[in-house]
Amino acid sequence: MRLGILRNETKSSSDKWEKACNHLNLEYDIIDLIRENWLDHIMQNDHAGFLACPPGIDYLYKDLYDERIYIINKILDKLVYPHFGEISIHENKKYLSSWLKANHLPLPKTHVFYNKDEALEYIRSVEMPIVAKMNIGASGKGVRILQKSGSAEKYVDQAFGNGIRQAWGPNIKMGDYQNRVTRLVKNPSIIISRLKVYRRNYEAMQKGFVIFQEYVPHDFEWRVVKIGDSYFGHQKVKQGFKASGTKGIDYVPPSDGLLNFTRELCEKHQFNCMAIDLFEDGNGGYLINELQCIFGHVQDHICEKNGKPGRFQFLNDEWVFEEGLFNSNESYDLRLENAISLINNL
């Protein structure tokens, strides 16, 4: 079995897939999707499947990557993991909000305005606070909580004027400063790559539209993850007004109801690999905040029950918890296991 790893504009984007393939002694080729000859590499080589690295920093490469994944997955009918349907809603918040509404899935009330007067009319009539989101940007860096209509009007003026930047420096909410500095000192090459990412974040402007979402009062946000037949869940710890991007985890296991909600959603839309961030709606239901087919984590596991790391599986019509470490290599080892299973079942 020989696989193709579809690198994005960032050279290191393929690292975790490479590490996972090396663990299993699998042969692979790195295919740079931003190169002009990307399609020649796809069509001239016989790969069993392709491992995707969807980007999440700026629109230019997000659009390019999605278009080329569509060609590989839908036109050439090649197996891509995650597949196009999963990648298309990844780091595309305005599309995601419409996708959720069209599929009758619960979400916080979300509005996308391409007309400035329409946006101003909305913020002058809505109850504050509201959430302003940039279309692309992980770890909560493009999210702002607007407390007053004046600050919201200023945000609209910026969006339809010079544009809006997301936060572009280190994520101070992650904490663990001493260990982070130590890692940088020991690996100075990381500093250079981080600076390049920060510069791209700084240069990525959003102009001509705004995304506003109702603020859902919450003490935490659920993250539930499906990778193949494995399910994981925990609560994302809130700092200030939001839980996104804090990297803090409270290892509360998800209920059967939350696992059922996730399983039904993923089976209906054929999601093999998906992280779902949800708020509780106060009435026993859930509101979907984000869907991300690729996500990282700083912890060596992302789910616990009774203090033991592990995963949930749906066996014989009930949820069963299995103890163990299943999230090695930021869960890319498990993703590869799932991808190989799909290839073998073709």
Describe it for me?
The protein has 346 residues and is α+β, with helices and mostly antiparallel strands. The chain folds into three domains: 2-88, Rossmann fold (3-Layer(aba) Sandwich), CATH 3.40.50; 93-214, Dna Ligase, domain 1; 220-327, D-amino Acid Aminotransferase, Chain A, domain 1 (2-Layer Sandwich), CATH 3.30.470. Helix content is 35%, strand content 25%. It has eleven helices and 18 strands. It has helices at 15-23, 38-44, 59-75, 84-88, 93-102, 116-125, 149-159, 177-186, 188-203, 256-268, 332-344; strands at 2-7, 27-32, 49-52, 80-81, 110-113, 130-133, 143-146, 164-165, 205-206, 210-214, 220-227, 230-237, 249-250, 273-280, 286-292, 304-305, 308-315, 318-323. Strands 13-12-11-14-15 form a five-stranded antiparallel sheet. Helix 6 runs antiparallel to helix 7 (149-159) and helix 8 packs across helix 9 (188-203). The longest helix has 17 residues, at 59-75. The model has no long low-confidence stretch (mean pLDDT 90).
